[in-house]
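Structure (tokenized):
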């Protein structure tokens, strides 16, 4: 392997990986995700996507196992090198999600033929043996897998959070990496809060973890504090002064608190980093993480400026962004670079004139390069299965089984009966709704809705649901003093016999025209039950000495459940879409309670700051 940073060749031993009992997929034993490049050419930039771990720490985002699997498949097709599938120790549900990604997505090669190997599946663990073993058990079934462990190194964290001294920090870090190395060849270590850590102490810690067997060193700017010059200088200093630095891949992990995540990451690349940790749409805790699409398209647009190349299929960027936005409920701001709705729109007359004469007058990136096509394949009610399947594959849905395809085709036909022209945006919305619903039957299914509303009258709504647990239809009605949506939500609450607090409601058009699909996103939490008391995650009332008591916080107010649930629905009728979204969120809430210990952890439980 030729390193531009060290300007020398690094000899790496290779081995064959066992996949289903057969030897295949030759790769380096030293590090699984490194690509060979010819002398004098650019280094391969490793794209490490943490949408399913750090991105899911966005407030209010909890993806189901099926949703995580669908996003993981899409990231594999996109050409991502490493995916951080989750934090396995957080709960049994999180362990199951990571394990299924390792088994079902880990071996996939579709769309990766030129890369020559499947995606590396990584899991996150704290620097303890219990965490590391749990992480290994979750990811080990993937042909290529990685343990990613971390420990804080800044004095403010050591003194106030961990309450340990520097020597103990070095011991714990080296011990954790050594144990991880005994289980797995590919081990990544992150020094949490590197941006505020003492540089020379960082060199000591990182030197010891290299001795212990780390193959990737990640330098997180955990709180988004550093500037591009400072972060680039930090990467350069660590590479030049850490013993054994030439043996490992150096990685960036930047947060966007000051809006500098992408700039810091690119500065890190200029100064020797060869892996970048990113998320789709830049989602993540607080102000988010470095945006995958921004880093990739910077390198794509300036191929001679950066000393690296990537293997991302950029034409799948937009559809991947749309999928993540739909399933997470995190709406992309219109002026977001690369994937925002306004990214390729021109309002100014001067700009419009220039683009009409020559696109490059005001477009430095072709919309088609990221999968935004102005002229869509026209699908309608006369379109057949082959045309529909072909368009889905062009949008990145290569791996749909027959059952899922049949369900999607039926939904498409139903839409085509009411809409003359079905666009790519419509298809992406339909598929994301289908993924969100999952393959298992939902507890409640919306059967019908009837709403009466007027300017001077209170709205009324009659809702019919099918309850699969009782195998019967339920019907009730409610009034809405604030309009039809309030009436619909009130009727649904009466049917499910829960009192629910609406935390967020958003409606937007998926495409253009009077017959455009409307997409609704809601976020809910359980307030108090119909008796006036909050219920816990297992539906048992909170009691003291056998007497039901309300859950009261320190201010004397009734407490809300700490769990939030998002749902989304799509329909030409936005009132119906609202009902679908509300029922979708309620189904998530009930599924969480029914599954008990197997449920995905809450945001608070799975949070891991790096």
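Design, position by position:
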């Amino acid at each position: 392997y030729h390193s531009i940073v060290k300007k020398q060749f690094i000899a790496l031993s290779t081995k064959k990986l066992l996949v289903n009992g057969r030897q295949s997929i030759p790769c380096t034993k030293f590090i699984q995700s490194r690509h060979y490049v010819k002398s004098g050419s650019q280094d391969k930039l490793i794209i490490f996507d943490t949408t399913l771990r750090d991105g899911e720490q966005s407030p209010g985002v909890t993806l189901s196992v099926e949703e995580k699997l669908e996003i993981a498949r899409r990231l594999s097709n996109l050409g991502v090198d490493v995916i951080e599938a989750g934090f396995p120790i957080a709960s049994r549900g999180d362990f199951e999600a990571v394990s299924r990604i390792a088994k079902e997505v880990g071996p996939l090669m579709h769309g990766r033929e030129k890369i020559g190997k499947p995606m590396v599946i990584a899991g996150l663990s704290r620097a303890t043996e219990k965490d590391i073993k749990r992480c290994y058990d979750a990811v080990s079934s993937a042909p290529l897998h990685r343990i990613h462990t971390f420990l804080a190194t800044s004095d403010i964290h050591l003194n106030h959070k961990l309450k340990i001294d520097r020597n103990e920090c070095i011991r714990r870090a080296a011990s954790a990496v050594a144990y991880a190395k005994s289980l797995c060849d590919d081990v990544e270590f992150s020094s949490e809060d590197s941006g505020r850590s003492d540089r020379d102490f960082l060199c000591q810690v990182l030197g010891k973890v290299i001795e212990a067997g780390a193959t990737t060193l990640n330098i997180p700017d955990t709180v988004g504090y550093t500037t591009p010059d400072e972060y680039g200088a930090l990467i350069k200093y660590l590479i030049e002064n850490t013993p054994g630095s030439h043996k490992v891949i150096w990685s960036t992990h930047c947060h966007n608190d000051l809006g500098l995540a992408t700039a810091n990451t690119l500065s890190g690349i200029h100064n020797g980093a060869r892996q970048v940790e990113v998320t789709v749409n830049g989602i993540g805790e607080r102000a988010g993480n470095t945006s995958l699409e921004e880093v990739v398209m910077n390198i794509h647009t300036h191929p001679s400026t950066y000393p690296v190349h990537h293997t991302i299929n950029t034409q799948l960027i937009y559809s991947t962004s749309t999928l993540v936005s739909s399933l997470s409920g995190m709406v992309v701001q219109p002026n977001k670079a690369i994937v925002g709705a306004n990214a390729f729109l021109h309002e100014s007359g001067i700009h419009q004139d220039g683009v009409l004469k020559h696109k490059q007058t005001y477009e430095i990136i072709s919309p088609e390069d990221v999968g935004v096509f102005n002229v869509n394949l026209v699908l309608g009610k006369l379109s057949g299965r082959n045309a529909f399947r072909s368009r889905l594959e062009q949008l990145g849905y290569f791996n749909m089984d027959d059952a899922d395809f049949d369900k999607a085709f039926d939904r498409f036909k139903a839409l085509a009966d009411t809409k003359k022209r079905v666009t790519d945006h419509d298809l992406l919305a339909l598929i994301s709704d289908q993924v969100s619903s999952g393959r298992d039957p939902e507890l409640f299914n919306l059967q019908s809705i009837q709403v009466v509303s007027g300017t001077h009258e209170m709205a009324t709504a009659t809702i019919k649901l099918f309850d699969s647990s009782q195998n019967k239809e339920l019907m009730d009605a409610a009034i809405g003093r604030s309009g039809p949506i309030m009436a619909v939500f009130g009727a649904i609450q009466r049917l499910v016999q829960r009192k629910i607090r609406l935390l967020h409601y958003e409606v937007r058009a998926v495409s253009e025209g009077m017959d455009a699909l409307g997409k609704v996103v809601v976020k809910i939490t359980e307030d108090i039950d119909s008796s006036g008391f909050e219920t816990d995650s297992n539906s048992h009332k909170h009691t003291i000495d056998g007497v039901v008591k309300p859950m009261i916080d320190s201010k004397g107010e009734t407490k809300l459940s700490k769990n939030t649930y998002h749902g989304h629905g799509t329909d030409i009728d936005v009132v119906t879409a609202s009902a679908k979204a509300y029922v979708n969120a309620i189904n998530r809430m009930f599924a969480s309670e029914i599954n008990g210990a197997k449920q995905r952890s809450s945001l608070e439980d799975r949070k891991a700051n790096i």
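Reviewer-requested clarification: Confidence is low (pLDDT under 50) at residues 1-7, 10-40, 529-552. The chain has 17 helices and 22 strands.
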